[in-house]
Amino acid sequence: MAGVLPWRAAGYVAGGAALGAPLLLILVVCLVTGVTLGVVAVGLPLLLLGALTGVPLGALERRRLRLVDPAPAPSPHLAPDTPGLTAWLRLRLREQATWRELAYTVLMAFVLWPLDLAVAACTLVLPALLAVAPAHLALSGGPDAGGIRPAKLWLVDGYPAACGTAALGVVLLVVLLYPLGAYATARAALARLLLAPRETEARALLAEVTRSRARLVTAFEAERRRVERDLHDGAQQRLVALSMSLGLARLDAEPDSPLARRLAAAHGEADAVLAELRELIRGIHPQVLADYGLPAAVEDAADRSPVPVDTDADLPRLPEPVESAGYFAVREALTNVARHSGATRAAVHARHTGGRLRITVRDDGTGGADPANGTGLTGLADRLAVLDGTLTVTSPPGGPTVLTLEIPCIPRQSSGPAPTV
Description:
single chain; alpha+beta; Heat Shock Protein 90; 64% helix; elongated; disordered C terminus; Put_sensor_dom; HATPase_C_sf; protein dimerization activity; membrane; two-component regulatory system
């Protein structure tokens, strides 16, 4: 902001002086009326209105900052998760940005705008009154009318004195533009500090990125379920029908004939494709997870593991993204146990305590697991981070390897008893 143009600095300071008086009136009316009528609860909305006065003023001041500070000044406010005035009010009253804007509003109403007015009067109005002294003298009737007193300072009773006064006014205007720019720069820095602090911008941006990542994960999970349903209800059913048709055709063919052998081979291929498709569907989004929840899905993953797995999962129904993340973390961990650990046995323990899902996968393998070696654990950590979850791997050489994940979550409200396997 070192090179602020004089006319921009003048516009910024004059604008602050013009906003101050109406703002002071609004605050005083809201405060006095709200306190007076507060005993009958009628004044509470006025007090609330006064507390929220800073929100529109803050938005206006962030726009006015462009006059002297071209750096972006985005709003520090977050967007409500749900539409409606109630959600908006609840969020605004909880945000620190709202109260910083109220503090700036009070400061502007009682301190800043009188200061803006005084600076504008000394650096702009006074030189302007001196600069128009010849015109003022002419409009007042000339020297014969007794002269004039520009800005109430001294008597000017002739055009030579009026021209000298005008020259002085122009010089003062040029000289005082520099302190005016310095004042406007300091004034804008104070406004930015309260209305758009740099760390608040970073926190707001980080919060928005986190929310957008969560929305992407939710959308991705919904798409996975849609693809799973399409494969289960479409391609899988057609393959089942094809396999049955080939089986019936084999019954009509002569035993040990070339046609029977070709039908048998085609039937075997259809069954193999059907088995692969079922595994693919289970990998996309297992139906057991959607129908019965995470404990049953963990049991299913343990049954399919080449390494014997002991499971101990006692969990309520959790939000779908949490259940999905927990299931795929367990499955990836068991896959790593089978491929890399050399373990003879593994165990999965899952509980929901203290508002957090905690899953531990332990094996008796050789240890030395490193998430940086491309075992899929880095991707799992990124997936859990979207849900504010954490992934911890302890794997000293010689074992055991212990993988622990934690995800903060609240159990789903169940409308009835959960289905039983």
